[in-house]
DNA sequence: TTTATTTCGGATATTTTTATCCTATTTATA
DNA sequence: TATAAATAGGATAAAAATATCCGAAATAAA
């Protein structure tokens, strides 16, 4: 469904958000450990998220990653997915036709579009805050 | 969502079904042309589907691929997807945890499982016959 | 100002997916 | 029986995704 890069990006963002509530900046190393992801690969993804202004990176000693506390509840999964995987999950045809077009539908178009739309709505309405709170409450997990 | 192999497998199966209704066996070449897929790669996928008894292959002159007419309405998309992509689409965690487990959910589990279940139901209830009929009626397309 | 820490970013490596090539095998028919 | 037409399947190649390495740049603190 999502690429590995996107999975890491989502999990990392949640962990960063969680720490940002406590004014704590987290290092790449801490993130990779917490979400069980390869460090260098995760670094690339974090750079990408920083370039998209989803997270903030601070270089140098005592540097790391953080998210503006006030923005956490405004950041939707959709932004992360679009930043990393692009919007093919929204516009792509389920059977790989060049474009998903109501006027030139593939055989599964009608059945597929509803599911894809539900996914779209889910991504557009889910924000980082709620996900971080679940982790904090021990109601969900970032690894294993 | 689906792998390229799976997309080709679904489209090929629909085209084979369509022809099998008219007692026509279709060649690899004809299939690849009709669904705009690479011939040799498509051959591998068809072999896979044949091994899974979803389609039937006939070697030699006047050979090709066909589906037992009476089975066309019984073949569900689910069988094709499972044969090619396996069942990770059913059991896999949306964020890549080892297993999707209600008791050890990832942050998006609750929101994800409903969408995944809708997809599952769609695949389990959609059969080749209805898809082939749409193609025949010009209501859907296999390429471009 | 030096040092330790940490992200940045380019280059490279590995793995997986997608695609191609070639020979063997099977089968209908001339 | 010889030939042509097809699929089967192993080997290989190309492309994309995933992962690693390393030096450069930035920054805090000694
Ligand atoms: S055309 Fe294939 S999903 Fe819309
Ligand atoms: S645990 Fe991640 S989708 Fe169920």
CATH fold-type name of chain A: Arc Repressor Mutant, subunit A
What is the number of helices of chain A? 7
Which oligomeric form is depicted?
A: homodimer
Helix/strand-derived class of chain A?
mainly alpha
C-alpha-based Rg of chain A, rounded = 17 Å
Described by the principal axes of the CA atoms, the overall outline of chain A is: elongated
| Pair of chains with the largest interface and how many residues each contributes | A-B, 38 and 38 residues
Could you tell me the number of beta strands of chain A? 2
Bound molecules: FE2/S2 (inorganic) cluster
Give the strand order, joined by hyphens, for the main sheet of chain A.
1-2
What share of the residues of chain A lie within helices?
Answer: 40-55%
Strand content of chain A: under 5%
Order of helices and strands of chain A: HHHEEHHHH
Report the uncertain regions of chain A: none
Give the CA-CA distance, first to last residue of chain A.
Answer: 19 Å
CATH homologous superfamily (4th level) name of chain A: Winged helix-like DNA-binding domain superfamily/Winged helix DNA-binding domain
Q: Report the CATH C-level class of chain A.
A: Mainly Alpha
Count the domains of chain A: 1
Description:
Two copies of one chain form a homodimer. Chain A has helices at residues 4-20, 28-35, 39-51, 77-85, 88-91, 109-125, 128-136, and strands spanning 56-58, 64-66. In chain A, helix 1 crosses helix 2 (28-35) and helix 1 (4-20) crosses helix 7. The longest helix of chain A has 17 residues, at 4-20. The mean pLDDT of chain A is 98. Chain A has one domain (4-136): Arc Repressor Mutant, subunit A (Orthogonal Bundle). With 144 residues, the first copy, chain A, is mainly α. Chain A has seven helices and two strands. A two-stranded antiparallel ribbon of chain A has the order 1-2. The two termini of chain A are 19 Å apart. In chain A, strand 1 (56-58) and strand 2 form a beta hairpin. The structure holds FE2/S2 (inorganic) cluster (2 copies). One FE2/S2 (inorganic) cluster (FES) binds at residues 93-95, 97, 100-101, 105-106, 109, 112-113 of chain B.
């Amino acid at each position: 469904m999502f690429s590995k890069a996107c999975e890491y990006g989502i999990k990392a963002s949640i962990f960063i958000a969680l720490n940002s509530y406590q004014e704590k900046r987290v290092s790449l190393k801490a993130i990779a450990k917490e979400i069980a992801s390869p460090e260098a690969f995760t670094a690339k993804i974090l750079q990408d998220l920083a370039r998209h202004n989803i997270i903030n990176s601070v270089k140098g000693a005592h540097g790391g990653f953080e998210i503006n506390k006030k923005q956490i509840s405004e950041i939707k999964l959709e932004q992360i997915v679009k930043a990393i995987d692009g919007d093919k999950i929204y516009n792509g045809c389920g059977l790989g036709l060049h474009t998903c077009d109501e006027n030139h539908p593939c055989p599964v178009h009608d059945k597929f579009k509803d599911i894809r739309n539900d996914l779209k709505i889910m991504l557009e309405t889910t924000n980082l805050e709620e996900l971080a709170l679940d982790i904090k409450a021990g109601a969900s997990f970032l690894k294993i």
